[in-house]
Fold this protein.
Amino acid sequence: MKLYVITDGFLIKDEELEISVEKAIKGGAKFVQLRDKFLPFEKKLERAKRLLKITKKYNVPLIINDDVILAKEVNADGVHLGENEEYYFPFAREMLRNKIIGVSCYGDLERAIKFQNMGADYVAFGSVFLSKTKKREVLKTLKIFQWAKSLLRIPIVAIGGINQDNYKVLLEFGVDIIAVISAVFEGDPYLNALGFKK
């Protein structure tokens, strides 16, 4: 299992961005996603450049949330695409050749299969549990991960409400990557990330 941490502007002060992410990486994070939904492009670009210095230092991929242009501009390691991206995906793949492209699939296996066939590098399902930061409907069954494992060749990510107390059940269903926000960035990111190694 690999730990995938996602930044949140409400949980991480701007001046603590690099320190928080570096702590998370030292604690075991294998992927970092910069998620800045409400900032202007120039500010996102500046933050992405700052983070890239940290992630390159540890050879951890930096994924940009929902912004192909930003990912291309900063030479990030990839992009994560959300809803209604069917028409955007070919553009993303063209712009980010040989880069990682992940796609949110919520509880939709058909969507996951479609994006795998289009060239996605991983698919994410969630919200797995009730979440403070991912205000989405909770998955109807965790068996979706078993079904996905039998149908897909690419890594499967679980996201939403996952913490150190409940993540192990997901491993039993074949989840490859656990994506978290508050479970790492509320409190000490190093100790919190370590908690996923128990």
